[in-house]
Amino acid sequence: TKAKTPLPSARPDAVVAPPDFDKAIPAPESALAPPGFRKLKKYIYPYISSTSDVTVGRYPYPSGYSVDAPLSPAGGDQGGNPSLYDIHATVQATLTNIGDRDGAAVVQLYIQFPPNTTDAASGAPVAFPPRVLRAFDKFAVPGGLDKTAGKRKKVVFEVTRRDLSYWSSAQQNWVMPTGTFTFWMGFLSRDLPLTGKF
């Protein structure tokens, strides 16, 4: 397991600069319909009929429009901050086929967030569902009348920081609550015989 911290690692430095587009304003005449253009009725065209209403000057943008916003701490790469995909826990169990035929089962992993969680920035309580599905996979297990090791299958799920976090609109970041998480593993939401704490 990896140590639990409320926030992910700092956003990594940008590898590629954002694109910079030409900000020059084209001539108003470029928005007019081409000469000889025939318009159809009841159809909206992306042209203006006249340039007489076009005014030249500085547009009154709202205050702060031209100020560069700080980079989001939740970003930094495709899919967000790379720290969100660090593995914080590995959950495993053994799936056994008790029949004499080959079989398969879909195993699901649910997570229960710590109760009574409040957002550190706003102080507001954070509402979580009773359990959230975080992983599932189908595992084939060979059958057989004898009690050999072939009738067992090791089930492993890796839990990332993103799986254990919620989005805080106050902090504009993914936050991992403090407290104890409960893991549930089974075959459906109402059949979860295995449980563990993290």
> Which strand order does the major sheet show?
3-2-7-8
Q: What proportion of the residues form beta strands (DSSP E)?
A: 25-35%
The topology string of helices and strands comes to EEEEEEEE
Euclidean distance between termini CA atoms: 9 Å
Give a nutshell description of this structure.
The chain has no helices and eight strands.
Protein model, in words:
- It comes from Cryomyces antarcticus.
- Pfam families: Fn3-like.
- Belongs to the glycosyl hydrolase 3 family.
- This is beta-glucosidase.
- It is an enzyme of class 3 (hydrolase).
- The structure is a single chain.
- The mean pLDDT is 89.
- The chain has no helices and eight strands.
- The protein has strands spanning 87-96, 103-112, 132-141, 152-160, 166-168, 173-175, 182-186, 194-197.
- By secondary structure, it is mainly beta.
- Strand 7 and strand 8 form a beta hairpin.
- 12% of the residues are buried.
- The radius of gyration is 28 Å and the shape is elongated.
- The protein has a four-stranded antiparallel beta sheet, with no helix packed on it. It has a two-stranded antiparallel ribbon with strand order 1-4. Strands 5-6 form a two-stranded antiparallel ribbon.
Helices and strands in order, then pairings?
Elements: E1 87-96, E2 103-112, E3 132-141, E4 152-160, E5 166-168, E6 173-175, E7 182-186, E8 194-197
Antiparallel strand pairs: 1-4, 2-3, 2-7, 5-6, 7-8
Keywords:
elongated; 8 strands; mainly beta; 198 residues; single chain; 4-stranded antiparallel sheet; two-stranded antiparallel sheet
